[in-house]
Structure formats: structure tokens, C-alpha cells
Amino acid sequence: FPAGTSETQERDVEMVQKYLENYYNLKNDGKKIVKQKNQSLVVEKLKEMQKFFGLKVTGMPDADTLNVMQQARCGVPDVAE
Amino acid sequence: YVLMEGNPRWDRTHLTYRIENYTPDLPRAEVDDAIEKAFKLWSDVSPLTFTKVFEGQADIMISFVRGDHRDNSPFDGPGGTLAHAFQPGPYIGGDAHFDEDERWTNDFKDFNLYRVAAHEFGHSLGLAHSTDIGALMYPNYQYSDDVQLSQDDIDGIQALYGPSSNPVPPTGPQTPQPCDSKLTFDAITTIRGELMFFKDRFYMRVIPRYPQVEQNFISLFWPNLPTGLQAAYEVTERDEVRFFKGDKYWAAQGQDMLYGYPRDIHRSFGFPRAVRSIDAAVSDEQTGKTYFFVANQYWRYDEYKQSMDPGYPKMIAADFPGIGNKVDAVFQKDGFFYFFHGTRQYKFDPTTKRILSLDKANSWFNC
């Protein structure tokens, strides 16, 4: 893992939250991931994402996962209307 | 490939499109060309046709917009999401939106409009994101100068609309699977303590102490390299990797391509004109001698003197007994040479000139 300051870790948490909301239908209840009561949903979404991209499936936002999340991509809307 | 939920598809094969507005990043003609080429990729492999219209409602409406553009899927400024498209259907169905906060290009720089449009139109036709990294429908942006549908994309569109009427069935490249026991390699090299295997458009990277092989496009690291490399080797003394295809070669330090390449193998290394390409190459970091394998012969080049050693070529079978008459790829690790031919790998001790072990070619991938 790259050494990260608390500031970069905070940014990472926000990035993971936003990514899972955008592409994995994670509901935003206004709280950050680390403060959510139910961590298992985030872990499951992360595992789903890691499996899709052929990453090591850990359920943790490790360096490889963060790297893939930072890449530009297409966002297909969920519904047509 | 993955189809969209409910398998939405157009109920006809002749579709229209309209470009509602143009990005200022490119001349209009370039935008028209990118969009037309993107549609052609899909029409070439299916019964679909696409006709451009200039007014009214088209099946696929194309626009460049930024931020919240009132479709419940706001864009997010530069980077992040580049574009999106809606599944087949009336009104907004099929429409493709490109984020105007991105810089749209017609070359390798971020972000190539043709590449992104080709992906979005896949959604417009009913395809969801594929898990095949070589597919155009893979969700993350990756550019190579030969934008093409993979076999996975072709299978997907034909599952929806049937085969092309072309008498020669169109085919696309398959993505190499690291754990396929039939996998062979174009070239292999060490690079800064790691191993890189090359196959078609892809590299497979073995990183020490990391259990999984990393696979991606060669162009991700070196956008200017051609695909289908034939040989590669590292000169550790110079922190330089050289890549060969045909009678040309390129050099890189890490991710940076060195200036002044490609160069000619005849003038640079002294190969005779009859040598048209290199099968495999490896440089012995102890001696500074580089071995070039061409058909059933090999040459030896001195990296210090920068000249070919006299007395070459010699027969591979004579000096590397047991590895056969042809080499696909070779690299050196811990003093041993690892030769690859077809699906086989030979660990060779250059001191005793003996083969120490025989393995599958993909044995480095922890399959």
C-alpha cells in the first residue's frame, strides 16, 4: 500500500463512495462509507466491482482497486426514461 | 458480452442518427468522420445500417453536453464519466451524450471521440458492459490506434440482430487468456525486475510478490508501439527495453519512449538484408552480449562495442541443445535463459548448456 496521509485517505473514501454510487447503485444516505452502520453492503459492492475487473477480490479498497476506480469510463444510465 | 437487462433491441435494422450539436474541440468534419466510423464498426458485422439525418427526431440523437443536462444522469466535469448512452427505445432511447467537459480528440490523446462513440453506440444498440478487457464494451477507457470490435463485441451484437449479410463472416480478435493452456507468446522481456509477456495487443505483467498477473493493452504503457511485437529485450545497464517488429525497433526507458525511433535493425545492429525480422532476443546482463534468434540461427551482439560479434550466425540447435530450431520468446532471470516455443518453456543453463526443466509456457501466471 502506498503511504497515505489522512487527507489522501479521506479523499479515497469519498472517491470509493462516489464510484459505488455511480456505477454499483450504492445508495447515499449522506454519511461516508466508514461511518455507515452496514458495512457489508459496501464490501459486497466492492467485491462485485473487483470480480468484474479481474482484481483480487478482497472487499477492501486496496491500491489496485483505487487505481481502476480512478480511470475514466463510461456511465450507462440505469433506465431509459 | 453482456446484454442490457430485459434484452432491449431495435425492432428494425435500418436506423437513423442525428448530430444535434458539435464539440468545439474538433473541426466539424472530424466529428462527422468519427461518428460515421463508429457506426460503421457495428454495421460491418451485423445487418444494421445507419443513415445520418439533419433535422427532426432520429433514432439515435447525439449531443455534447456538460453537467446536469436534464436526463437524470448528470456529467461530472473533467475525467470520471466521459459519456453515456441509453438503451434502444423511443424518445431518449438510443441517444448518446458526450461530456463537453472532456477534451475530445482524433488521436491517441485523451479522449479519442471515435473510440468513445464506438463504445456508446454499443449501448445504443442494446449491449451492456463486457468483462472482456479486449472488448470495445469494456467500461474503462483505453485507446489503441486500431479501434476495432473484438470477437466478444461481434458475438454480442449478433446475438441481438443476427449475423452480417457479408458472405465472409466477420471476425474479431480474441483476448488472450493468461490461464489458457494453449497460450503462446509473441515476445517476453524483463523490465525493472518484473516480467512482461506480449501477445497481440496485450501485455501480461508478472509483478514480484503479487499473486495475480496484470493484463492490459500494450498501448496503456507505450501508446506509440505497434501491436503484434515479435521480440523484446532489456539492457539493464542502460535501463532500456527494446521492442522489435519487422525490420524496425523501438526503445523505451520505463514508460517513456526514447526519441529517434523506430530505427532500422540492419543499420543499427548490422544484420544482413536477408534478415527481415527477429523472432526473439535476450541480453545477458553479466556479459553485455545480446542474442538474437532468427529462424534456426542466432546472432550475438556486443552492447559495449555496439557491434555484432564475428563468426555469427550460428545454429541454435548446436549451441542451445534441446530447445529446438525455433524460438518464440526468451528472457534471462537469475542467470538462466527461459526459452519459449509454442506452449512449451525450457529453463536453460547457459554455463552447462543443459536444459534444467520443461514447463507450460504460462507457468509464471500462478494459474
Would you mind describing this structure in some detail?
The complex is a heterodimer of chains A (81) and B (367). By secondary structure, chain A is an all-alpha fold. Helices cover 51% and strands 0% of the residues of chain A. Chain A has helices at residues 6-24, 39-52, 63-70. The longest helix of chain A has 19 residues, at 6-24. Chain A is globular and about 30 Å long. Chain A starts with 5 loop residues before the first helix and ends in an 11-residue tail after the last helix. The mean pLDDT of chain A is 76. Chain B is α+β, with helices and mostly antiparallel strands and 367 residues long. Chain B contains six helices and 23 strands. Chain B has helices at residues 28-43, 113-125, 151-161, 218-221, 265-269, 316-319; strands at 14-19, 49-52, 60-65, 83-85, 96-99, 187-191, 194-199, 202-206, 214-217, 231-235, 240-245, 248-253, 256-257, 263-264, 280-284, 289-294, 297-302, 307-308, 314-315, 329-333, 336-341, 344-349, 354-360. In chain B, helix 1 (28-43) packs across helix 2. The longest helix of chain B is centred in the first third of the chain and has 16 residues, at 28-43. Chain B is elongated, with a radius of gyration of 24 Å. The chains are: A mainly alpha (81), B alpha+beta (367). The A-B interface holds A 22-23, 52-56, 68, 71-77, 79-81 and B 8, 71-73, 76, 79-87, 89, 91-93, 102, 110-111, 116, 119-120, 123, 128-129, 131, 133, 139-141, 211-212, 215.
